[in-house]
Amino acid sequence: MVTHGKSGGNGFSMQTITTGHGPEKFAHLPWLKVTGKEPPWAG
Q1: What are the phi and psi torsion angles at 19 (to 5°)?
Q2: Which end of the chain has less Cβ packing within 10 Å, N or C?
Q3: Residue 33's closest CA among 20, 9, 14?
């Protein structure tokens, strides 16, 4: 699992996670963007 965030004052306002899990597993976390593990050039 890889995470990346953008700082927004008092902490992170948006996090991006790369995972093998589907985005529905994290739907309860509106500040989290889920991406797959496939590289962008493998489309």
Answers
A1: -150, 165
A2: C
A3: 14
For the chain, give every domain's residue range. 2-42
| Radius of gyration of the chain measured on its C-alpha atoms | 12
Q: What is the pLDDT of residues 7-42, one digit of tens each?
A: 555 566 778 888 888 889 989 988 888 887 777 787
Residue 33 token pair:
């963007």
Q: CA–CA separation, 20 vs 35, rounded Å? A: 9
Q: What is the pLDDT of residue 39?
A: 76
